[in-house]
Amino acid sequence: MKNNLIAAAEIDRLDTWAKFTRDMCHSCNSSCCQLPVEVRISDLIRMGVADEFERGDPPRNVAKRLQKEGIIERFNQKSGIFTLTRLSNNDCLYLDRKSRLCTIYDVRPETCRNHPKIGPRPGYCAYIPKPTR
Fold it and tell me: Pfam families under this entry (predicted)?
């Protein structure tokens, strides 16, 4: 019988993603943290980059401020969704480069809390193993 295990996924090729299991996270290089992270104003408030008073402000004003601060890279006015900034290597702004752990884990956005239940391929993960040393 042929082994169909995929050693490492390509983030942009959903057909290479592996069926998610909880133990994957411990040996993964945080590949999910290289996907675009879509957030709403409630996420931004929980993260501490917007305050409760801004909930009533026009979202485009909040977006303009957060773009200047380098926290978001895009805002979709029609959907009200902000996209967090990614670094030049596509890592999330909040991913620690050395530990590959989230620096805002306790206040992370809903998108991250619900991964991989939601996302481009629900139930699957773009698993990339940590480099061996």
Answer: CxxCxxCC
